[in-house]
Write a sequence for this structure.
């Protein structure tokens, strides 16, 4: 309830406290040198198993007779449907494939991705969870304190309680640091959003199994390791406010916003539902829905078992990409001020035509190296000399919906021109952080790269 007393619109001390946590590379609860043993113990403490199965062996899932859409009998969770995407015109020569059909996930409910924060020994710590997801390449990664769909925390699956959920939806939740709806993968989800939250508490918090308190500095160190910090953690971390140490930028904030609006206006896209069993170029057999070229992704089914989940055993569909992706940010200093090159990226599942993506976002397996158009800057990223590469780590995408979906994440110093090609713009990290406080400006890949970029400020790989 509001206090009915005037207060400062922002908490001026918060960026400094977050910066202090980022500068603290050892924690009051779990020293960094003990983290590997802790994670190994959590892995040994439970039985995890994931097996591919034919669609017919999924429990509660079936293909609708009239559409072929893959649905759950409860009407909850998500559906796999068909989508027809078209873009009228190609304002920037964005490539030849602007009219296509594909499967896509539709999930109406908004989940919560929430990290609980608390001061320990005078330093902000963040409560992270060692969470199994069936699609993770290594199954167990660090997730937010709460990573739950509405079906999870309202017990649509008749499972157990979502731990710590009252800190995010209860009447006595603590001080809100971050609370913003953000998009999910626009190529695989249709207009899917999750509520990204960081809430600080001053009360006692019982420490349950599979959870640990880490400083932001410790988390940033772990972001330099392959497949440790999961995608949901990365997107929440990217939304943390930061002190604006530089007030200069190539584009003023209003100019950057105007450029984004112009890109959204310039692109004219249409999406239409299509029956999943009549998608041109796609075929279904007993264990997968796949494209006839072998590119893009497959829809598959798995049976999963995890002793420490709200439901210990279940079956579900997953999207499995045809190969690993490449995400890259080009960076350069402009008159002493760091900038990154972002692109206005059209994706079929986005709510507002475009969101800002990293400089490079693509899957090489989907391109014929001899014949097809490649994204701008892709070759310069992949051929960058070692002394220009500031960051090079493999991170998995969301393991609750995607199987073995990994991206090589690179941050590369460049002398790319200050006048980028159409559809690209230079922005400062502070400008991106400011945009991350609002919905539908940075896509999920850009938020991953922003979290990685922030991790390079205080940590050396």
């Amino acid at each position: 309830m509001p206090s009915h007393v005037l207060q400062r619109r922002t908490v001026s001390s918060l960026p400094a406290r977050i910066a202090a946590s980022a500068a603290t590379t050892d924690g009051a609860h779990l020293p960094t040198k003990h983290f590997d043993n802790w994670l190994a113990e959590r892995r040994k403490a439970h039985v995890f198993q994931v097996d591919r199965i034919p669609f017919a062996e999924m429990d509660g899932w079936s293909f609708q007779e009239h559409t072929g859409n893959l649905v759950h009998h409860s009407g909850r969770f998500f559906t796999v449907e068909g989508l027809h995407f078209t873009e009228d015109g190609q304002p920037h020569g964005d490539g030849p494939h602007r009219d296509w059909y594909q499967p896509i996930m539709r999930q109406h409910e908004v989940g919560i991705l929430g990290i609980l924060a608390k001061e320990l020994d005078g330093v902000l710590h963040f409560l992270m969870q060692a969470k199994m997801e069936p699609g993770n390449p290594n199954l167990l990664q660090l997730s937010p304190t709460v990573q739950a769909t509405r079906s999870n925390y309202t017990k649509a699956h008749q499972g157990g309680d979502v731990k710590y959920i009252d800190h995010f939806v209860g009447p006595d939740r603590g001080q809100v640091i971050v609370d913003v709806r953000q998009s999910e993968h626009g190529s695989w989800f249709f207009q899917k959003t999750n509520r990204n939250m960081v809430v600080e508490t001053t009360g006692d918090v019982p420490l349950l199994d599979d959870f640990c308190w880490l400083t932001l500095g410790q988390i940033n160190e772990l972001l330099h390791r392959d497949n440790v910090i999961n995608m949901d953690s990365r997107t929440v971390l990217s939304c943390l406010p930061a002190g604006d140490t530089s007030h200069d930028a190539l584009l003023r904030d209003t100019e950057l916003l105007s450029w984004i609006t112009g890109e959204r206006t310039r692109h004219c896209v249409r999406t239409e539902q299509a029956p999943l069993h009549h998608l041109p170029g796609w075929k279904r057999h007993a264990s997968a829905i796949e494209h006839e070229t072998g590119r893009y992704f497959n829809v598959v089914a798995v049976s999963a078992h995890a002793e420490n989940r709200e439901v210990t055993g279940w079956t579900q569909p997953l999207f499995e990409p045809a190969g690993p992706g490449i995400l890259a940010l080009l960076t350069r200093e402009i008159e002493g001020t760091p900038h990154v090159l972002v692109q206005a990226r059209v994706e079929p599942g986005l709510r507002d035509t475009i969101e800002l993506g990293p400089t490079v976002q693509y899957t090489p397996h989907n391109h014929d190296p001899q014949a097809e158009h490649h994204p701008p800057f892709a070759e310069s990223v992949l051929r960058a000399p070692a002394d220009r590469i500031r960051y090079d780590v493999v991170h998995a995408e969301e393991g609750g919906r995607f199987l073995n979906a990994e991206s090589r994440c690179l941050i590369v110093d460049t002398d790319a021109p200050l006048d980028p090609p159409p559809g690209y713009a230079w922005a400062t990290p502070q400008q991106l952080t400011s945009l991350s406080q609002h919905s539908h400006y940075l896509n999920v890949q850009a938020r991953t790269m922003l979290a990685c970029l922030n991790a390079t400020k205080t940590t050396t790989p």
Observations:
- Confidence is low (pLDDT under 50) at residues 92-96.
